[in-house]
UniProtKB/TrEMBL annotation:
Belongs to the zinc-containing alcohol dehydrogenase family. PANTHER family: SORBITOL DEHYDROGENASE. PROSITE patterns: ADH_ZINC. Signal peptide: none annotated. This is L-idonate 5-dehydrogenase. Residues 186-305 form the Alcohol dehydrogenase-like C-terminal domain. One of its GO terms (molecular function) is zinc ion binding. It comes from Gluconacetobacter liquefaciens (Acetobacter liquefaciens). Its cofactor is Zn(2+). The lineage of its organism: Bacteria, Pseudomonadati, Pseudomonadota, Alphaproteobacteria, Acetobacterales. InterPro entries: ADH-like_C, ADH-like_N, ADH_Zn_CS, GroES-like_sf, NAD(P)-bd_dom_sf. Keywords: Metal-binding, Oxidoreductase, Zinc.
Length: 346
């Protein structure tokens, strides 16, 4: 069979506000590769940014690209040199393929690799196609067989949960501490879930909308506050800024106790962001960035298997791939939706 012997349906972003269901070639698996029949995919904030703005930060669309990096499915076919995987076996796909040879990779910081290929990302040219397609071929190193007890639908949440777990790891020990999570979108809600499992004593979630706060409550927040109605200020040992709104940063700083830790999880829009550095200095705050994840992916799968309430509480809507317009419209509406999934196999 030639490399392009057959095609599959895929959700392709051509430009800002130009999303199409196209047919694309399916590459046969080469040495060390696996073809996966994709079953489920989660819509991420970055997917919505590509649709609404034509890019995410410095990653700007320059050619058509398949969206999606929160992906699970079943092994369709394995290439030469691949062992330990069975046809039809349920798997999740780690979206990152770091180079393995740069200074960051050699230091064990694979998630900071500047040459990484990340599914559904326009950071490099040619862009790296994502997983919103019915068949896709990836490196076997990206394939994670599902642990016992984890269904393939819930498994696509391993990627956003990994982001949350990495952010929590950046904060250090959280057991018994008072925590604020600012921004209760899917990542903020998953941070709340991770904090609950890790034994945080108090978990306060804030947002400008009531619906995401109801999801945070399901995820284990001990209290929730709509800051559009009730301005909030209180000292917390650790603050996670998960909104990605530059205007929210001064509040996050003010809510971090003296000598506390502020973890920046939300990605700011392009351009300079004003930061009250005087407050960071005078309060001796430890301001830490958090970007993607690496080995947390396996941990996320294990947690999803043993804590089914995470997926049950986070997922609010499911759509077939052909209903992509409705799916994205729903996902963008934070008043009624949290995590929206594509039933790609349906």
């Amino acid at each position: 069979m030639s490399d392009t012997a057959y095609t599959t349906e895929a959700l392709v972003i051509h430009a800002k506000e130009d999303l199409r269901l196209d047919r694309v070639a399916v590459t046969a698996p080469g040495t060390g590769e696996v073809t996966v029949r994709v079953a489920w995919g989660g819509i991420c904030g970055s997917d919505m940014h590509y649709l609404k703005h034509g890019g995410v930060g410095a990653s700007v669309l320059r050619e058509p690209m398949i969206l999606g990096h929160e992906i699970s499915g079943f092994v369709e076919r394995t290439g030469p040199g691949v062992s330990g995987l069975v046809q039809g076996g349920p798997v999740a796909i780690h979206p990152a393929r770091p180079c393995g040879d740069c200074p960051e990779c050699r230091r064990g910081l694979r998630h900071l690799c500047s040459d990484t290929r990340f599914l559904g990302s326009a950071a490099m040219l040619p862009h790296t196609d994502g997983g919103f397609r019915r068949l896709m071929t990836v490196a076997a190193s990206q394939i994670h067989p599902l642990p016992p007890g984890l269904d393939v639908r819930s498994a696509c949440l391993a990627e956003p949960l990994s982001v949350a777990l990495h952010a929590i790891a950046r904060a250090g020990e959280v057991r018994g501490r008072t925590i604020l999570v600012q921004g209760a979108g899917p990542i903020g809600a998953l941070i709340v879930a991770g904090l609950k499992i890790a034994g945080a004593e108090t978990i306060v979630a804030t947002d400008l909308q009531d619906f995401p706060l109801s999801i945070a409550r399901r995820m284990g927040a001990t209290s929730v506050i709509n800051t559009a109605a009730t301005p909030y200020r209180a000292d917390h040992d650790v603050v996670f800024e998960a909104s990605g709104a530059a205007s929210a940063l001064p509040t996050a700083i003010a809510c971090t106790a003296k000598g506390g830790i502020l973890v920046q999880v939300g990605m700011f829009p392009p351009g300079d962001v004003g930061i009250p550095l005087g407050q960071i200095i005078a309060r001796e705050l430890d301001y830490r960035g958090s970007f993607r994840f690496d080995a947390e992916f396996g941990t996320a799968l294990a947690l999803l298997a043993t804590n089914p309430w995470i997926a049950e509480g986070l997922v609010t809507h499911r759509f077939g791939l052909s209903a992509f317009d409705e799916a994205f419209t729903t996902s963008i509406d934070r008043r009624h939706a949290s995590k929206v999934l594509f039933d790609i196999a349906g």
